[in-house]
Amino acid sequence: MKHRSTSEQHHGKKPRVPAAAAATSTSPQDGMEDKAATNPRELTQNPLKKIWMPYKNGLPEKHICQRKVCMTNCPTLIVTVGLPARGKTYISKKLTRYLNWIGVPTREFNVGQYRREFVKIYKSFEFFRPDNEEGLKIRRKCASAALNDVREYLTEDGGQVAVFDATNTTRERRETILEFAEQNGFKVFFVESVCEDPDVIQENIVQVKLDSPDYTNCNTEEAVEDFMKRIKCYENSYETLDEILDRDLSYIKIMDVGQRYLVNRVLDHIQSRIVYYLMNIHITPRSIYLCRHGESELNVKGRIGGDSGLTIRGKEFAKKLSHFIQEQNISDLKVWTSQMKRTIQTAEALNVPYEQWKVLNEIDAGVCEELMYEEIQRNYPLEFALRDQDKYRYRYPKGESYEDLVQRLEPVIMELERQENVLVICHQAVLRCLLAYFLDKTAEELPYLKCPLHTVLKLTPVAYGCKVESISLNVDAVNTHRERPANVDVSRMSEEALLTVPSHQ
Amino acid sequence: MALAINISTEHKNLTQTPLLKIWVPWSGGNLNRRRGSSVPQFCNSPTMIVMVGLPARGKTYISKKLTRYLNWIGVPTKMFNVGQYRREAVKIYKNFEFFKPDNEEVFDATNTTRERRAIIVSFAMEMGYKVFFVESICDDPEIIAENIRQVKFGSPDYADRDIDEAMEDFTQRIDCYRASYMPIDDEKDRKLSYIKIFDVGSRYLVNRVQDHIQSRIVYYLMNIHVTPRSIYLSRHGESELNLLGRIGGDTGLSPRGKKYASALATFIKGQKIIDLKVWTSHMKRTVQTAEALGVQYEQWKALNEIDAGVCEELTYEEIQENFPEEFALRDQDKYRYRYPKGESYEDLVHRLEPVIMELERQENVLVICHQAVMRCLLAYFLDKPADELPYLRCPLHTVLKLTPIAYGCKVESFFLNIEAVNTHRERPLNVNITRNPEEALQTVPDHI
Q1: What digits encode the pLDDT tens for the residues B231-271?
Q2: Global pTM?
Q3: b/e map of B370-381 (b: 16 or more CB within 10 Å)?
Q4: CA distance B37 to chain A (A)
Q5: Which secondary structure element, helix H or strand E, spans residue B408, and what is its range?
Q6: B84 CA: distance to closest CA in chain A (Å)
Q7: Which of A114, A136, A375, B421 could cross-link to A142 by cystine, CB 3.0-4.6 Å?
């Protein structure tokens, strides 16, 4: 909620409602016998997140619940199924990254990793032969070790979702996992990837298997040949998820890299979100370009937020951005902006159609809109300190937090996954959130990611992650990045608070 | 993509449209040539959604619900129902159950043959439409019988029939179709875009989703269910600012508001609802109301009241005094009007979409929210168009109980007998910017 423009700005808060009316009274209810209703708890607003919560004896009570994605009490175990080189690890890692970004603590457990730690040196595909007793024993042991870690993560370490990444191609193995889950009170959701397209499989092998520690000492041909034989070892015993036999299980079967999906028995919200996500991702090569608007009038004045236009240098950047985009020779580029003047002005210079998304608007700084950091320190020193203590969760009074931003940006991420080549012209905090998603940055790192003006970030998916190229377009701009100061205590002095404020007019 | 930079565009200033507060290049008033679209580009070409399946498989139910949802999120959609076509022509726009009028029997009306579907696909190709098939497959006799009972007996075809006779007749009709029914074949039809829904949603097969809107449709269809349940909508109890005739803000409940909270607790207990979920916004007044219930509740930021930007905590009189043009614009188009530095109802709908999606997934839910938010939610359930939505009556201290029934929603309104101020401002007669203050303030409800 933006409050007033700078010209009408009050300094210090002046309540519009007379104090008497604002006081909460605890007058007795008339004729109500109901015990719960006679004593509704007093509410206090948590200073960091600005959430209203009931309190007793000056301390917040636990009874309150803020909407989170994973509202189930049950942790969820996602189990991949599929022959080697079907994209299971790709899916596992991507899904894990997505879930963590939207706030669901998730970790992946790759059984292959466990095997590599156990069997220090990989010799050949023979290890995976179905008649290799020794190999089978080790593989079973590794699966158990991984499940053990899953249990610890979900029951003791605060995990909500664990992704168990292995072939799990036999019904017997899956039964074992189901029993394990039932014993521990976990819900199970299977993700099977089925693919018979030899080109896709070949490409998978080239992209991720050749660089595997298993094949460091092989040349390409040797590695591919061995891997193909490895796949063969699994083929005979492969029992795909069956519509009849497995009709009571919850699963999604992904066929031919997303041409077709079979979805069975989605049990809850998180499974529904997972299905939606998996159905929107693709592996077509493409690049995502992220940049901020050109330098704005408020930027040079060291003021945050607002809706001002570009400076001369900002316009210069817009022009250079246009050149840059043309040089990149991108096919079918979509351009997205926020609904704020500065991003639109930037896009206008490109001379191509663009879409304005309100959800790409900069973080709402509420009562701090258009203030300088010095003014925030002067007028709201407590707020300023709280923000430095937990920049991700801190919500501006009548404004937003980074945490809110992530929730707001989720549809953008979903659409970015669906799209191919896209240029997103946005804002500092927004860019940090988007970048954190693509580069798998934690909530602690996110608000401090460096996203300078006049710099384009080109993200290209590669193997299991994302290649980033940072391209500065060589137009000077003010620095808007404020590092976390050493002293974040509410009792700190102004100088300590303002130590890391970048210079401005 | 080699485009020459047009020097003149550099000097083109941006101007903010007064109603929507969207920045557009000012080119002498011709907004049509602007490049920036502020409307989400869900689909570039119109899409035909074609229902497939035997009678009494929920096709009409799904069509109506999907149409309602798409219209609510802002995708103009119309349903073309075969059953009705025999009685009246309905306009085709983007979404319909297709029926090609020729001398063939109504048999093919359910698109149950491959030939029929091929005709549709080539028709669509000619017109430049995308086609998405939704097939409903169900063999559970109980579900089918219930479907028939719930919806067919309201149909004009069976107006004068005895129930058992009608059931018998209808079952026979289904058998006629069954003989020539060819479900979408996963091999032969693998080039088509479709979703198959098995057994009322326990299983889905999705093939070749082409674009964003189809992806949204699939997500929606996978989240809806037919389990009987009720949704209770209510505003927070009367707040301090309500009494003063001020909009927005984040105040607590007035004494009467607190009484309402208790009354709500009693009412809810009396309803004896199984497994009720309670949702509130992040604002003090809804949280306070929920606290009186003595049960667990979830706070959703998305349920916060519409952001009135610079008008937050003002009275209508003050808005008229300080922002008379804004006030008039709002009366001209209340749905699309965005407060300066605030939101519009249109923005609200966008914000509330995840709430609707989760409401579809859930069963019994009580949502304690705010006037504008409640109007948006109600409009979704009761299929109200954008121009009616901002004027729906959602008085304080009244619970609306919505129960899905047949193709729609039954609404029951419960006023809990605690007096409250009226916060409903009707559209005044004169919405012109030139109007005088009295005309603007004519419909403002009384306050302190």
Answers
A1: 999 999 999 999 999 999 999 999 999 999 999 999 999 99
A2: 0.89
A3: bbbbbbbbbbbb
A4: 5
A5: strand B408-415
A6: 33
A7: A114
